[in-house]
Amino acid sequence: xxxxxxxxxxxxxxxxxxxxxxxxxxxxxxxxxxxxxxxxxxxxxxxxxxxxxxxxxxxxxxxxxxxxxxxxxxxxxxxxxxxxxxxxxxxxxxxxxxxxxxxxxxxxxxxxxxxxxxxxxxxxxxxxxxxxxxxxxxxxxxxxxxxxxxxxxxxxxxxxxxxxxxxxxxxxxxxxxxxxxxxxxxxxxxxxxxxxxxxxxxxxxxxxxxxxxxxxxxxxxxxxxxxxxxxxxxxxxxxxxxxxxxxxxxxxxxxxxxxxxxxxxxxxxxxxxxxxxxxxxxxxxxxxxxxxxxxxxxxxxxxxxxxxxxxxxxxxxxxxxxxxxxxxxxxxxxxxxxxxxxxxxxxxxxxxxxxxxxxxxxxxxxxxxxxxxxxxxxxxxxxxxxxxxx
Length: 390
Known about the structure:
Layout: H1 2-14, E1 31-34, E2 37-41, H2 54-67, H3 75-79, H4 82-95, E3 102-107, H5 110-121, E4 126-131, H6 136-144, E5 148-152, H7 155-164, E6 169-175, H8 187-196, E7 199-204, H9 219-223, E8 230-235, E9 245-250, H10 251-260, H11 262-265, H12 272-286, H13 288-315, E10 326-332, H14 334-346, E11 349-350, E12 353-354, E13 364-369, H15 376-389
Parallel strand pairs: 2-11, 4-5, 4-6, 6-7, 7-8
Antiparallel strand pairs: 1-2, 3-9, 8-9, 10-13, 12-13
Helix pairs in contact: 2-12, 4-12, 5-6, 5-10, 13-15
């Protein structure tokens, strides 16, 4: 077994697919010390720059002083604290704008939330329709579910699959914002198909919640959707600046998850101090400061794309459209992506190369993510370094 693993690791390295962890030594921020060296980062999911916000830090301290560190058990045993309950009620209140009779259920991570929702709703006798570009957590949930599964890459393809399906129950599964591409799924059209074919629509809003829509309420708010067929998953470790996730849906769906979703039943609840802190995070997201930070993200995105467009055209690279904080620069080969990332890091900038299997073979890229704490000068520095590296 060890020799087999060594051979496989050598093969991955030969294809420029080896992954390397880095050690961050200061709080997450655009300017961070990594492996003992100060770097300007364009790779964080802390889109609003809340992870080190003083109010959020104080709220976490208050939560730890009140509830201690660990939760002590699963939610169904003794680990469901008042903080967890208040957080779920607050999130259900937000979801009620999109989903009639909404309830919410909290999770330790977005990965667990997706595994829970897909496996519990995609049981035997259910046909699952999964978007081709979905996140690994959705893909793994579909693989673990006992229902039949099909993959679609367009609204037209999904429509044909739904029309041909004779399954008693149907579940459509999609990212709202595709994390490696930055563009939004056509949620209005997908919801129309769900209503037409008596299906549920599970939407992973990991990269939309906090960033898109009025008050940062995410992709469903961005499109103005409302339906009892919606199952909404959002993460709380990205724009919300802390950790965890939630699933919000019609009360009947949430009760089913509470009773049957294994990742919800058989795991220790997240620290209640985090849930306590997240109530402050929601205040920040929904308030004036959240509005200001989202406006800053839009300005920075426009500045970045204006500078990247001529660079991409000159070198035959691709800059997909994006209305989010994610801006991929597709440079095609693994070697080119790694070389560019290394040249940027030599200049003090951290922009990771994204390669297969995270993205399709032949579509390696630099994945540039913006934070509201970035300054215009930071984006200018990145653009200059990219021009030199190219």
